[in-house]
């Protein structure tokens, strides 16, 4: 009796458990949470190294690079899969608690959660078990590409070829979808994190300065670009001079950021070209008319659509609110459990 009452008061959730951000969609409410996938923990060495969670999400991200020795700001997801099971479980518990209205019953929602296309069965099992340990009654897994395509409004169930390029924090996934299934897919471990690291390496190599990930991300968002522009923008940032060992300010231009991003961008373009080569001719004809659909946070990089248009000769469309495409697709799948084809789920 109490179990059925507890389920009645529970709201089912769809979760995009990303490398950079975790987004949650609640049945009947829409998207209710968008927080960085970061957890700040204090290790109690006197108590069998027990983890003491100090902050999760935005508060924890603000601590990156600024924590004392006994506190770690951890990103438990790497390349779209779980790198730290215990911390991921604590993060999910915190987020689920945040989006549920407080009640006398412990909520046990059904959860639809996305997984990268290239993930192994072991990695998928880890994601499923982590969600169950965080309090899920039942877990359904859906591939990120399928969720992104559904969220972008592509006709995934029709006999029409649709190509989606989902650029996340840890991976870029490229896939061709038709008749409710993935015809071709590939995943490369390049995403927003690699873009940030490329900027860090470039500044260290050319300026002799050290900057952190938050600063690199700021540079990318402010003056980052994927294509040469006639307008050259400059940004003043601060870092530590390696030779002098003291903080210094310096200016970097948008053309230099473009040069820094050249290698990871080439990997993205290479993955798209390979997918087009492997696409069956009839579906390729559909894609030539309909174009490529860009989703994920990486799609927000300035002129990325222009770069892909130049390299492929095909039209490129950026999805509405590309950052939330995957969680919206998960939400549509959640609303349709029992009504839509089970084939879109990996297993549940």
Automatic annotation (TrEMBL):
Keywords: ATP-binding, Cell shape, Cytoplasm, Nucleotide-binding
Positions annotated to bind ATP: 19-21, 169-171, 217-220, 297-300
The family this protein is said to belong to: Belongs to the FtsA/MreB family.
Organism field: Turicimonas muris
GO molecular function, one term: ATP binding
UniProt subunit comment: Forms polymers.
Pfam families in the record: MreB_Mbl
Record's keyword annotation contains ATP-binding: yes
Annotated GO CC locations: cytoplasm
InterPro entries: ATPase_NBD, MreB, MreB_MamK-like
Nucleotide-binding recorded as keyword: yes
SUPFAM superfamilies: Actin-like ATPase domain
NCBIfam families in alphabetical order: mreB (TIGR00904), PRK13927.1 (NF010539)
Principal subcellular localisation of the protein: cytoplasm
Subcellular location: Cytoplasm
Primary role: Forms membrane-associated dynamic filaments that are essential for cell shape determination. Acts by regulating cell wall synthesis and cell elongation, and thus cell shape. A feedback loop between cell geometry and MreB localization may maintain elongated cell shape by targeting cell wall growth to regions of negative cell wall curvature.
HAMAP family in UniProt: MreB (MF_02207)
Gene Ontology annotations of biological process type: cell morphogenesis; regulation of cell shape
Name of the protein this chain belongs to: Cell shape-determining protein MreB
